[in-house]
Design goal:
The structure holds two protein chains of two kinds. Chain A is α+β, with helices and mostly antiparallel strands. Chain A has helices at about 5, 10-15, 70-80, 85-100, 110-115, 125-145; strands at about 30-40, 45-55, 60-65. A three-stranded antiparallel β-sheet of chain A has the order 1-2-3, with helices on one face. Chain B is about 35% helix and about 15% strand. In chain B, the strands form five sheets. A seven-stranded mixed β-sheet of chain B has the order 4-10-9-8-7-5-6, with helices on both faces. The chains are: A alpha+beta, B alpha/beta.
Chain lengths: ~160, ~425
């Protein structure tokens, strides 16, 4: 196993230049806003994900945290993929990412659905690091549920 | 250049005890393997040590030749198994200079050993007729330190919650030493027990215990030393250290996992109520109530880890054969070498003493702001196995303002070439995350 399969350029780019980092207030005061704070007890990584939504569209997915390159790059990709998306689509992407990470490297990711998230395919081969990649995604799911979003996925129209 | 000779009659450099490291390495089959296409560089012995063939042979031989339950059979196999188990107890006792094998209680690990003492306090606190040294209540105090492993924090937190006693702790200095400046206040007439790590599993600090022991005696408290990281690496003499209890674990000293030791003074173990109830630990059982066996059996309810204990005896033989003094010197030289070598790595910050004095061969560090998981992952790709995380000593990480560290730790089989591989690996880490 070559380590550069794990540390793809895309992942290192997101880590060094994170997109959409920082917890933000909702633009629309009527939006439902909720957040979830998740920690990885084995390494002390922490992330807080905040969702602002009208129940149909995720107007913003903002985040802050501390941790390894995998968890922080994953949060950046999460923001990029899900912010501004209809909730149903977002949860289809969520399901695809979880499937990829649970696949022990056997799942071929669909770039149409996962965008830069495909770079995490290599991470799935490292069981010790899968939790790092999933940390922001699990926090996102909790935050969205708390914001009152129906979290069941539907098909993404490519 | 002139050399200054050490005067005759004084200890000479050549007098330092030593051994053939290559020969020792040949005893450890796992050291021959490769990891990710590179020779294994195992720098995680503080986490668990490897096992020499001599120990593995004894483990196998036990199951193949004298497997039986202990302390309850009249048949030959049972007798031989019991002799092997009790023989291991005697070996362990001699290894730490315990006055009697009966002072050695076999446990699962250090964690269980500490919990036995903590629960003995707890159980005694419920019984008015119990020995007052073990009775705890509001106003009493338990003292630990900020540099403890979670196994020497959480049992005492739980005990204090149950009894209403107060938990206090020694702070840690910026250099990673125990801050003893508040000793007389911290250890006082209200103190019932001081439970202190002998060598920190994260900072590498070896605590000098004599001042604390003296103070503990002045106030009539008890002293437990967590020797999980020290007994495997240096000679231990429980009489010389004047402790009341020490704990350590087999898997960090060339033995299998699942076997640990609680050593306690005879009269203290005898004054402690039982903790786990069950077979073996009783004197007589009636439906109306039971009486209990004397120590150490009182604290060994159920079938113990027999083969593991026997293998711990073999590990003690192995380590004694190499020589604990020599192992200590070897690791001291490695530590000095590693501290110098790591000092050449840009942006590397060591947590804990940065001189090879009053510390062992366990070195935690940060590499710039690169997360330890990333450091460990790149090192692993080069075959270098280090521990990353909070090392079950989260208060130390908090003390130094980091969520986690990278830790390299050495043992009798570690070489300077492996430390070179670590340093080269750290350069690679810096390149990946530049």
């Amino acid at each position: 196993m070559q380590v550069d399969q794990l540390y793809q350029e895309i992942i290192l780019d997101h880590y060094k230049h994170p997109h959409g980092r920082g917890l933000r207030d909702a633009d629309d005061p009527a939006a439902s806003v909720a957040e979830a704070h998740h920690v990885n007890p084995t390494c002390g990584d922490e992330v807080t994900v905040r969702v602002a939504t009208d129940g149909v569209v995720l107007h913003d997915v903002s985040y802050d945290g501390y941790g390894c390159s995998i968890s922080q790059a994953s949060a950046s990709v999460l923001h990029e993929l899900l912010a501004g998306r209809p909730a149903a689509e977002a949860f289809a992407v969520h399901a695809a990412f979880v499937e990829l990470m649970s696949g022990r490297g056997e799942v071929t990711p669909d770039e149409e659905v996962l965008g830069d998230g495909v770079a995490f395919a290599g991470v799935a081969r490292y069981p010790a690091r899968v939790k790092c990649a999933l940390l922001p995604w699990m926090a996102f799911k909790d935050a969205a549920a708390r914001a009152g979003v129906d979290t069941s996925p539907t098909e993404v129209q490519g | 250049m002139t050399t200054i000779a050490i005067p005759p009659g004084m200890p000479q450099y050549g007098d330092v005890p030593s051994y053939d490291v290559a020969a020792v390495r040949a005893d450890f089959p796992i050291l021959d393997r490769t990891v990710n296409g590179h020779p294994l560089v195992y720098l995680d012995s503080a986490n668990t040590s490897h096992k020499p063939r001599q120990v593995l042979d004894v483990l196998r031989e036990h199951y193949e030749w004298r497997n039986a339950n202990v302390s309850r059979s009249v048949h030959t196999l049972g007798t031989e198994a019991t002799e092997a188990y009790e023989g291991a107890r005697a070996k362990v006792a001699a290894f730490i200079n315990a006055p009697s094998p009966d002072e050695v209680v076999f446990t699962k690990n250090s964690t269980e050993a500490i919990n036995i003492v903590a629960y003995a306090f707890s159980n005694a606190s419920l019984r008015p007729d119990a020995d007052p040294r073990f009775r705890l209540g509001p106003g009493d105090e338990v003292v630990i330190s900020e540099m403890e492993h979670h196994s020497n924090i959480v049992p005492w937190q739980l005990l204090c919650e149950r009894t209403g006693a107060t938990l206090r702790w020694f702070p840690v200095t910026d250099h990673g030493r125990l801050d003893e400046s508040g000793l007389t206040d911290l250890v006082n007439e209200r103190t019932k027990i001081v439970s202190l790590v002998h060598m920190s599993n994260i900072l590498g600090t070896v605590n000098a215990t004599s001042r604390i022991t003296q103070r503990v005696r002045e106030v009539g408290a008890l002293l437990l030393l967590d020797c999980s990281q020290s007994v495997p690496h240096m000679p231990m003499d429980v009489v010389d250290y004047d402790a009341d209890f020490i704990v350590f674990t087999g898997h960090k000293m060339c033995a299998p996992s699942g076997i640990g030791v609680l050593w306690g003074r005879t009269e203290l173990l005898a004054a402690m109520p039982p903790v786990l109830g069950g077979g073996s630990m009783i004197e007589t059982v009636a439906m109306s109530g039971s009486t209990f066996a004397p120590p150490p059996t009182r604290f060994e309810a159920g079938t113990p880890p027999i083969a593991e204990a026997v293998a711990l005896g073999a590990a003690v033989d192995y380590l004694s054969g190499v020589g604990m003094r020599a192992i200590q010197w070897h690791e001291k030289q490695l530590t000095a070498y590693a501290l110098d070598a790591l000092a050449t790595v840009p942006e590397l910050r060591i947590f804990g003493p940065n001189v090879p004095v009053g510390r062992g061969g366990t070195i935690s560090f940060a590499l710039g702001d690169i997360h330890p998981h990333d450091v460990g992952q790149v090192l692993d790709s080069l075959g270098v196995q280090v521990r990353v995380g909070h090392h079950c000593a989260r208060p130390v990480c908090t003390r130094f303002g980091v969520p986690a560290t990278t830790r390299a730790s050495f043992y009798l089989y570690t070489t300077t070439e492996e430390i070179d591989a670590l340093v080269a690996g750290l350069e690679q880490v810096r390149k990946v995350f530049a």
